[in-house]
């Protein structure tokens, strides 16, 4: 049989050793249709671990946060921008699935009054998953003394979803990677 394959595909008498491949790192989970994707690149953290108690307690809704490594925030789902603070630090989106989400860049960053932020969308804009919402100077915000941890919460969770689970916690993700697994009601 080996002679048949040798004749068919060619080759020499000595088999070449198989290449040694580097060990694979665990793959980041992929985005399912109901999921919300990461709004920016960085490390995913549980909401309960953020320094702002309004977010950490879940008072604003369930979700997760990202400790960012980049200053570009993108839409985590298709929808309509319902809130766009003129300071560029926070956005609300009503997704096509009926979720109302809030993305808040850092804590107390409203005090910067828009400095270091360049909003790319306004209230009423229709966005697709991955569209840029705002660009901000990550290092300047940090240098100004503000935490940049960026939570995303579902503000209408009680009415709209039966469960939500943070994905890739502790892992580095890129904007658009899986972030929150959402199970809608009904």
Secondary-structure topology with pairs:
Elements lengths: L1 H8 L26 E2 L4 E5 L6 H4 L6 E6 L3 E3 L4 E6 L5 E6 L4 E5 L12 E3 L6 E2 L4 E5 L1 H6 L6 E5 L2 H4 E6 L5 E2 L4 E7 L2
Antiparallel strand pairs: 1-14, 2-3, 2-13, 3-11, 4-10, 5-6, 5-9, 6-7, 7-11, 8-10, 12-14
Unreliable runs, pLDDT <50, ≥5 residues? 1-26
Q: Write down the overall mean pLDDT.
A: 87
Biggest sheet architecture:
8 strands, antiparallel
Number of strands: 14
H and E string: HEEHEEEEEEEEHEHEEE
Q: What percentage of amino acids are in beta strands?
A: 25-35%
Main sheet: which strands, in order across? 9-5-6-7-11-3-2-13
Tell me the distance between the termini. 58 Å
* CATH topology term: Glucose Permease (Domain IIA)
Q: What's the total helix number?
A: 4
Question: What do we call the CATH homologous superfamily?
Answer: Glucose Permease (Domain IIA)
What is the CATH level 1 assignment?
Answer: Mainly Beta
**CA radius of gyration:** 22 Å
Overall structural domain count: 1
* Assembly state of the chains shown: single chain
What is the overall silhouette?
A: globular
Structural class: mainly beta
- The CATH architecture assignment turns out to be Distorted Sandwich
- Helix fraction, binned, reads 10-25%
Subcellular location: Cytoplasm
Organism: Rothia endophytica
Protein name: PTS EIIA type-1 domain-containing protein
Keywords: Kinase, Phosphotransferase system, Sugar transport, Transferase, Transport
């Amino acid at each position: 049989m080996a002679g048949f394959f040798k004749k068919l595909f060619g080759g020499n008498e000595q088999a070449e050793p198989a290449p040694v491949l580097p060990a694979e790192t665990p793959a980041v989970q992929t985005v399912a249709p109901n999921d919300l994707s990461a709004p920016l690149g960085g490390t995913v953290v549980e909401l309960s671990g953020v320094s702002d108690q309004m977010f950490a307690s879940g008072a604003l809704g369930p979700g997760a946060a990202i400790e960012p490594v980049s200053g570009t925030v993108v839409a985590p789902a298709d929808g309509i921008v319902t809130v766009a603070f003129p300071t560029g630090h926070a956005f609300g989106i009503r997704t096509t699935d009926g979720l109302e989400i809030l993305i808040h860049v850092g804590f107390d960053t409203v005090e910067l009054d828009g400095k270091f932020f360049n909003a790319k969308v306004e209230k009423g804009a229709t966005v697709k998953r991955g569209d840029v919402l705002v660009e901000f100077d990550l290092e300047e915000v940090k240098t100004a003394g503000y935490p940049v941890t960026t939570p995303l919460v579902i503000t209408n969770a009680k009415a709209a979803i039966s469960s939500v689970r943070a994905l890739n916690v502790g892992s580095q993700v890129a904007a658009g990677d899986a972030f929150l697994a959402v199970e809608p009601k009904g």
